[in-house]
Amino acid sequence: MKHQLPDHAAAFRQLVTSPVKFRLFLLTRLPMAYLAGLRVASLTPEHASVSIKYKYLTQNPFRSIYFACLSMASELSTGALCMMYVYKASPAVSMLVVHMEATFTKKATGKITFTCHNGQQIQEAVARTKATGEGVTLTATSIGVDKAGDQVAEFRFTWSLKAKSKV
To answer: Does the residue 61 lie in any domain?
Structure first.
């Protein structure tokens, strides 16, 4: 089901889908993600996809992508959705990862794309904390697949969202 993005979320989506602006954002705010070469493949109200390639800076000694680099890409696929809904929100909403679980099912080589389909749940959680002022936690799942479409990993990030008080 398609739904309308709030203006602030649409502005964030424009920022992230501009390659130059996004790389500048990564360089200034997430320099390790910049060095690893993370790319936002898509960002819609419902899902976000982030890719990472096997290269010198992302490798481990076993000739696959280092798990920490996979974690960055998967976290960004969930975090981009959170950021889209909290970007310039009123009241402001803080976001923080409070838990992470991962399952690795295949050696990660080549280009891996992580996709999170929890956009609607994230939007609802942001709306709930803004309405109540209470903290909200939610778990977002990101599935990583290789070029052949085979699943290589599944990450589950628990996000804590809390509207800041207007003091």
So the answer is: yes
**What CATH code is carried by the domain that includes residue 107?**
3.10.129.10
Domain presence at residue 2: no
Q: Kindly state whether residue 1 falls inside one of the protein's structural domains.
A: no
Q: How far is CA 50 from CA 43, 74, 127, 155, 162, in A?
A: 9, 7, 25, 13, 25
Strands 93-104, 111-116: pairing is unpaired
Edge-to-edge strands, sheet with 136-145 = 39-43, 48-53, 111-116, 136-145, 151-163, 93-104
pLDDT of residue 1: 47
Which residue would you say has higher pLDDT here, 118 or 166? 118
* pLDDT tens digits, 6-26: 677 888 888 888 888 888 988
Please state the separation of Cα 11 from the chain's center in Å. 17
User: Could you identify the residue written with the tokens 């501009």?
Assistant: 18
Helix (H, G, I), strand (E, B) or coil at 57: helix
Structure token pair of residue 1: 């089901």
Alpha helices in 5-157 (DSSP H): 7-17, 19-29, 31-36, 67-86, 119-132
CA distances from 70 to 21, 74, 129, 142 (A): 23, 6, 30, 11
Q: What is the pLDDT of residue 4?
A: 61
User: Does 64 map to a domain?
Assistant: yes
Q: CA 148 to CA 139: how far, in whole Å?
A: 27
